[in-house]
Structure formats: structure tokens, C-alpha cells
Amino acid sequence: MIGSNRATSLDIWLIGLKNLDEDGQAIRLDDAARMSVAAEQQEFVGDPLRMMLVGLEEDTRHPYVIESGGVPVGVLTLQSGAARMAGWPHDDSAMLLRGFLIDTRSQGLGLGSLAAAAAVEEGRRLAARLGGGESGVVLSVNERNPAAQAAYAKAGFVDSGRYLGGRSGPQRIMYRSFNLPSTKVDDAHVVNYG
Questions:
Q1: DSSP strand pairing (3-5 vs 10-16)
Q2: pLDDT digits (tens, 9 = 90+) for 83-142
Q3: Cα–Cα distance between 127 and 65 in angstroms, integer?
Q4: Residue 168 φ/ψ, nearest 5 degrees
Q5: H-type helices in the chain, by residue range?
Q6: Rounded distance between C-alpha atoms, residue 16 and residue 5, angstroms
Q7: Element at 138 (helix H, strand E)
Q8: C-alpha Rg value of the chain to the nearest Å
């Protein structure tokens, strides 16, 4: 299934690595290894390949490669039972969005907001499939990263307070309910193979 933002003609695919065979995973891991972020963003995000590898090893993590126009443009991970890592009060009440980045070559096109909205929809599906009690997706974003905060807000995430547990300084906790009415960026969907 493919989604798009009709206003900007952008499409987003979230490709779940755990749903691919070994060859498919190897291709997507190579995609992640080729991604980079700007020097000023490095303190806010980790290594894309490492994040995907860790996600494949842990049962609670679900790693995705973000693709647009047939080109890998980013990565993200959804994690169940870990919402407190973003300063949320209860681990099991929200899916955690972590390890989210858009490759330097694809930034500034609105893909971050599209992918964040798609991650919420995939979080809803994942929670239903896993039988969890999550009611939305939570993340933490560094206070010194206003571009990311704006992208999440455009995707319908609401600032839910301050979190002082981030490795790079104070964070803003942002949350979006599964029940939030659709926004323009919600035309993006998830592709699952297998």
C-alpha cells in the first residue's frame, strides 16, 4: 500500500524489516548504512544502521526503513512497553517512536511529518496485533531541535511537557493519540511484506 500527500505529491512507504526475508533485510540494512545526518543533528540521533540492527534483535522493537519515490529516505523504530524512555508516565499506554531520522539528502521536503503520521498509523496496527493497551505514540525530542518539533507538530503530535532524561539535554515529550482526527499528512501508509 502506498500513501501520498496530495498537496505536495510526496509518497511514503514504511517498510517493516521484521517482515522481510534475509535478502530483503540485507538490502534495507545497506540502505540504512548509506544514510547520514547533518553534523548539527548528530547529537540528537544515532547511527541508522546500528538502530536497525538493534531493532531486529529485540522483540519489543519494530524497525522500518522509510521510502519515498522508490528511494530510501530515513529510518524509524516503534517500540512497545518502553514509553517511559520518552518521559511518559506509563510504559504500556503508548508506543515509543525512537531512532527516527530523515537522510540529509531528503530533508526539508516534508517527509518527516509524513513519516511521523505514518508511524502513528502503524503504531495503531501494531498495538492491535500485539494486543497491547497503547492508545497512541509518544516520543521525546531535544529542546534544541525546533525543526523536528515543528515536523512532529505538523503530524499531529502535541507537546506534553518537559523530560530531563535525554542524553543530549532537556527534551519535549510529544504525543499523538490513535484517535486523533486525520490531518493532511495522514495520507501516508505502511507497506508490510510477508
A1: antiparallel
A2: 999 999 999 999 999 999 999 889 888 899 999 999 999 999 999 999 888 999 999 998
A3: 19
A4: -115, 20
A5: 22-33, 48-57, 111-130, 146-154
A6: 21
A7: strand 136-142
A8: 15
